[in-house]
Design brief:
two-stranded antiparallel ribbon; mainly alpha; globular; ABC transporter involved in vitamin B12 uptake, BtuC; 15 helices; about 75% helix
Length: about 350
């Protein structure tokens, strides 16, 4: 990566720093200050949107490690969120455990379940691996609905106990906003640290050419299963937070379509980079909100198309967006952001 004029790396520590210059650090500090002051001047509606985006970013960071860095395509990521959500809710409801142990235990459980379904990655890859991960979606959903409906709530719903942090009960959007943002920042930092470590380099080697990676001494079995554990652990974190935030969960919150949406967000944002999940979640959420506003307007102007058009506009816009990005920007918004930064640094000689 090119550095701004006059900025040089004189040590390996400087070369590995994410925020290299004082301007980067000031920009980060200002962003964090604005992020935590946001509830002071934002309505509950906008806080709810950011809460939803932040939970999605956590899940996408895990999917990005699994698919973007290690190249193990998963179309059942929403099911692993369900493991974290139901695991946390059941531990809080029936064992009366505090929120933090439930969050950690349910996420580890999601990671272990991810390893079980990731065993197929040792023998198959690509399209066949994607199909095998869809099996996780149906099996996990079935286990939630059928064997013990009196415990899990079955196909209807499960009420989640309120989150109590040291005697302080989280009730409002603002309460959850600070909790979700802190966890999102922490998980993003952990994701960045993993991908910059020797584990992340091994993931990238497997993604680029697993035969060459094995020839270099990388244990494919170990790192593929580790990628599934880490990716599903992140999904479990997101699911547990979503359960606490929504207070009521059901299998309809974790469908195959939700898994497809997660993969679509990652494609739009860009695979193989920490910013990709953030850009993808924000872009698709903004697209959804725009469709919700525009749909009734179009229906009122052209009543011949029927009310079904307004209901289906979100899905149609999502499909068109994925096709456009795959054709014209396959590396996602994060890649376009990097090009923009390079042009700015080299201006006026950006050619």
């Amino acid at each position: 990566m090119r550095l701004p004029s006059g900025t040089f790396n004189i040590s390996y520590i400087q070369d590995m720093m994410v925020f290299r210059t004082i301007h980067h650090r000031i920009g980060l500090a200002v962003f964090l200050i604005l992020l935590f002051l946001f509830p002071l001047f934002a309505t509950q509606y906008w806080q709810a949107i950011l809460n939803t985006i932040a939970v999605t970013v956590i899940a996408l960071q895990g999917l990005n490690i699994l698919a973007g860095y290690c190249g193990q395509i998963s179309i059942g990521h929403s099911a692993f969120m369900a493991v974290g959500a139901y695991g946390s809710a059941l531990l809080m409801k029936y064992l009366d455990l505090p929120f933090w142990p439930c969050l950690l235990l349910s996420s580890v459980g999601a990671g272990v379940v991810g390893i079980i379904f990731g065993l197929s990655s040792l023998k198959v890859k690509g399209f066949y691996l994607a199909i095998s991960t869809i099996a996780a979606q149906y099996i996990i959903t079935y286990m939630i609905k059928t064997p013990f409906p009196q415990v899990t709530g079955g196909p209807i719903s499960l009420h989640v106990p309120p989150v109590n942090l040291g005697g302080f009960v989280l009730e409002t959007e603002t309460h959850f906003y600070y909790l979700i943002m802190i966890i999102t920042i922490l998980m993003t930092f952990i994701s960045k640290s993993i991908t910059r470590s020797h584990i992340g380099r091994a993931f990238v080697a497997i993604r680029d050419n697993d035969i060459a990676a094995e020839a270099m001494g990388i244990n494919l079995y170990r790192y593929k299963l580790l990628a599934f554990f880490v990716g599903c652990f992140f999904a479990g974190i997101a699911g547990a937070i979503w359960a606490a935030y929504s207070k009521v969960i059901s299998p309809d919150d974790f469908t195959l379509m939700n898994s497809v949406w997660l993969m679509g967000m990652l494609i739009v944002g860009g695979l193989g980079g920490t910013l990709g999940p953030i850009f993808g979640a924000i872009f698709i959420k903004a697209l959804n909100e725009a469709c919700v506003i525009i749909g009734p307007i179009i229906t009122s102007l052209i009543p011949q198309i029927g009310a079904q058009f307004s209901a289906a506009l979100v899905e149609m816009a999502f499909g068109v967006t994925i096709v456009i990005f795959l054709i014209y920007e396959p590396r996602g918004l994060a890649h376009r952001w990097e090009i923009l930064k390079e042009s700015y640094r080299l201006w006026p000689f950006s050619y």
